[in-house]
Design goal:
Helices cover about 20% and strands about 25% of the residues. With about 140 residues, it is of the alpha+beta class. The radius of gyration is 15 Å and the shape is globular.
Length: about 140
């Protein structure tokens, strides 16, 4: 039985994964980025204010997208989990500064028990890969 085309992406400079998962997985020309929190590459918290934390998360997503040959501007889906939904408007403004129209599809969920201010996962469309760079291609 053939296996799915899946390649793990670990981004130098990306936030340290907190468990047994990859920063992202590339499948075909889509990159599925794991939920990112406001942490640096050593797992230390980044940012004091909510805005600084959101920027840290989007910076992490941008680093991971770039490591796979993509760009955060090509996000097609964003999932955001916000501890305090009162910060929704501020999150919207910051997101708008990182992404461009057409904006990605999006889900935003309040999670009062999250334990961090915000976590965001993303799906990014990548440039089409050449067959010789795909696993198993001849």
């Amino acid at each position: 039985m053939p296996t799915a085309d899946r390649q793990a992406v670990i981004a130098p400079g990306g936030s340290l994964p907190a468990g047994p998962y990859s920063h992202a997985v590339r499948s075909g020309d889509l990159l599925f980025i794991s939920g990112q929190g406001p942490f640096d590459e050593h797992g230390r918290p980044r940012g004091e204010t909510f805005a600084e934390k959101v920027r840290a998360v989007f910076d992490n997503i941008a680093v991971i997208a770039a490591a796979a040959g993509g760009d955060i501007h090509d996000a097609v889906k964003i999932g955001a989990y916000i501890e305090d939904y009162g910060n929704f408007a501020e999150y919207n403004e910051i997101m708008r500064s990182y992404l461009r129209p057409p904006y990605p599809a999006r889900t935003t969920v309040p999670v009062p028990t999250l334990g961090i201010a915000i976590e965001i996962d993303a799906v990014v469309a990548l440039p089409p890969s050449r067959p010789e760079h795909r696993p198993g291609a001849s």
